[in-house]
Amino acid sequence: FLLSRYAVSFFCNMDTNDVNELVRLFVTLSINFGHEFAMEMVKNMIRHKLEIKLETVKMLREHELALARMRYAHELAIEHINLVQKKPKLGFW
């Protein structure tokens, strides 16, 4: 268990989109620890990478939503300032 957690954390910087790297990793793990262990490790690593990617996408969406809200609030503020400036002043001239 500790070895598998160590291996997942060690290999999580690896580019899982690169099939050659995954194959190299699988072969290395398979030779040293057996086929089933290698399969489980590669699956865990890919799952871990997907979780990170999904979390990043979620954070980016939240960030974009916050930016959109700020942009809208900014536009409303400018619109309000323009309305206030155009409003005729009451008083004596």
From TrEMBL:
Superkingdom of the source species: Eukaryota
Protein name, UniProt field: 7642_t:CDS:1
Organism: Dentiscutata erythropus
Organism ancestry: Eukaryota, Fungi, Fungi incertae sedis, Mucoromycota, Glomeromycotina
